[in-house]
Amino acid sequence: MRILQSPSILLRLEGAAVLIGSVIAYSQLQASGWLFALLILAPDLSMLGYVAGVKIGSAIYNVVHIDVWPMALIVYGLTASSAGVIPIGLIWLAHIGGDRLLGFGLKYPTEFKDTHVQRL
């Protein structure tokens, strides 16, 4: 069970599961494919924070790339009868899952290439 001893592989598998689950849930909503295409890379705009330096850039990037915000948006959409925000939360979650699958993790304040998954 070598796979269980590699956090990087486990994080990538988890990312794949989040990505696939989000895309399946999104497709079940029959939401717009155009909306998905338009917003799937939107969280990466947070990389612009690096213009202000590595510490600020990594903080902004990390705030946008944690699962808690899209999950909160989805829960809000389900509980407040605001179904319109659910697709946005699923797109955001799919983005984060895709990042983890590709090995892009949360950033350390040392440099952009230092992540919790691997050194890029």
What does this protein look like?
- With 120 residues, the protein is mainly α.
- It has 5 helices and no strands.
- The protein starts with 6 loop residues before the first helix and ends in a 19-residue tail after the last helix.
- 24% of the residues are buried.
Key terms:
0% strand, mainly alpha, 57% helix, 5 helices, 120 residues
- The count of strands amounts to 0
Number of helices: 5
Termini gap = 26 Å
Strand content: under 5%
Kindly name the structural category: mainly alpha
The coarse silhouette is globular
Order of helices and strands: HHHHH
Rounded mean pLDDT is 92
Radius of gyration: 15 Å
Instruction: Give the helix level as a range of percent.
Output: 55-70%
Largest sheet: none
Unreliable residue stretches: none
Secondary structure topology:
Layout lengths: L6 H22 L4 H7 L14 H11 L3 H12 L6 H16 L19
